[in-house]
Amino acid sequence: MQNNNNRMQVFLGGTCAGTTWRYRLIQNLKLAYFNPVVEDWTPECIELEDEAKRKSEVHLYVITSAMEGVYSIAEAVESAMTPEVYTVFQVVPEGFTAGQLKSLDAVIRLIYAHGGIAYTSNSIDDTAHLLNTAFYSKLANTETC
């Protein structure tokens, strides 16, 4: 569930539903992370996720057409409106209808208007590069003894 070390971490939010984007991202990520995906979602998992979000300076939300609900979108907007959090929101357009993409584009504009990084892209590798480039030195230099 989590990469344990003393650095701040990236919360890996977004579409679950059997997707593999997190594993592809983690392979290229230089940052500590919290991966909330577990086999059996329990009330304790909710508490761990909430705690991880509070401790994570960067919140990443990747939205794919496999999403079964809209809670991740609400979480992303909430993160963007939280001053002490850097929010990165990626929509993977493959599989969405034109109407859904139009609605997701409005979410992108909303997150961007509140200081988040928000975009549409099919590339998880580019997102790993963005996180590593934008946040690695900033987060890696926050370790304490």
Name the beta content range: 15-25%
Q: Radius of gyration over alpha carbons?
A: 15 Å
Please bin the fraction of helical residues: 40-55%
Query: How many distinct domains?
Result: 1
Mass-distribution shape: globular
Low-confidence stretches: 1-6, 141-145
Say how many strands there are: 5
| Sequence of secondary-structure elements | EHEHEHEHEH
Major sheet: 5 strands, parallel
Count of separate DSSP helical elements: 5
Structural class: alpha/beta
Q: Kindly, what is the distance between the CA atoms of the first and last residues, rounded to a whole number of angstroms?
A: 24 Å
CATH architecture: 3-Layer(aba) Sandwich
CATH topology: Rossmann fold
Please, what is the average pLDDT? 88
CATH class, named: Alpha Beta
Oligomer: single chain
In which order are the strands of the major sheet placed? 2-1-3-4-5
Write structural notes for this entry.
The longest helix is centred in the C-terminal third of the chain and has 17 residues, at 124-140. The two termini are 24 Å apart. A 5-stranded parallel β-sheet has the order 2-1-3-4-5, with helices on both faces. It is of the alpha/beta class and 145 residues long. The protein contains 5 helices and 5 strands. It has a single domain, classed as Rossmann fold. It has helices at 21-28, 43-55, 71-80, 98-113, 124-140; strands spanning 9-14, 32-34, 58-63, 86-91, 117-120.
